[in-house]
């Protein structure tokens, strides 16, 4: 068979195509080495989510004795990952309205207000939710929350993942915050 026969050219082209296909599928070429870079990397691991790095320690909710009232959820958010985690929103089983709140100085007065941009939990760090500080404000309570009740909380994180936990209701005057109808306009 002559060296330049159509059959040999077809055979060589087929062999080159098969080699290129196998190299591309093996993940060993320079073209595919960066494929992991396209995958979601959170907390230092490919394929992980922000929720994989986030936990809450000692979660609790303040009791509330009025049906139209408000309360707050507290605890310590911990990030075991190598990237910051941002909590963007929250929902609870106690109400259809839950907001991320902070205490801030406005016109020389400390006021409670919705936290714009969410809560950032630094890589390897913690973020405290406490009376008189950042907290999850539960508004428009559907029923009173009594000591010993449990409230389910779902946090939605910046990457769209969620972290769910249960907060135990405790009666306390910590922070001496008053959650009353004056907060209704904050929705």
UniProtKB/TrEMBL annotation:
The alphabetical list of record keywords is:
Signal
Keyword match Signal: yes
Keyword field contains Transmembrane? no
Q: Where is the signal peptide?
A: 1-35
- Pfam short name (any one): PCuAC
- Organism domain of life: Bacteria
Fetch the InterPro entries from UniProt: LpqE-like, Lxx211020-like, PCuAC_sf
PANTHER family hit by this protein:
BLR7088 PROTEIN, COPPER CHAPERONE PCU(A)C
Q: What is this protein called?
A: Copper chaperone PCu(A)C
Source taxonomy:
Bacteria, Bacillati, Actinomycetota, Actinomycetes, Kineosporiales
């Amino acid at each position: 068979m002559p060296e330049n026969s159509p059959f040999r050219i077809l055979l060589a082209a087929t062999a080159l195509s098969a080699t290129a296909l196998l190299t591309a599928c093996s993940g060993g070429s320079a073209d595919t080495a960066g494929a992991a870079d396209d995958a979601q990397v959170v907390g230092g691991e490919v394929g992980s989510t922000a929720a994989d790095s986030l936990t809450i320690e000692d979660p609790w909710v303040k009791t509330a004795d009025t049906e139209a009232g408000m309360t707050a959820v507290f605890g310590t958010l911990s990030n075991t990952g190598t990237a910051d985690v941002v909590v963007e929103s929250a929902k609870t089983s106690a109400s259809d309205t839950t907001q991320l709140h902070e205490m801030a100085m406005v016109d020389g007065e400390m006021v409670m207000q919705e936290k714009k941009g969410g809560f950032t939990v630094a890589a390897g760090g913690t973020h405290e939710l406490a009376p008189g500080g950042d907290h999850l404000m539960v508004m428009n309570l559907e029923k009173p929350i009594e000591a010993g009740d449990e409230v389910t909380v779902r946090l939605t994180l910046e990457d769209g993942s969620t972290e769910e936990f249960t907060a135990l209701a405790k009666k306390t005057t910590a922070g001496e915050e008053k959650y009353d109808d004056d907060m209704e306009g904050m929705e």
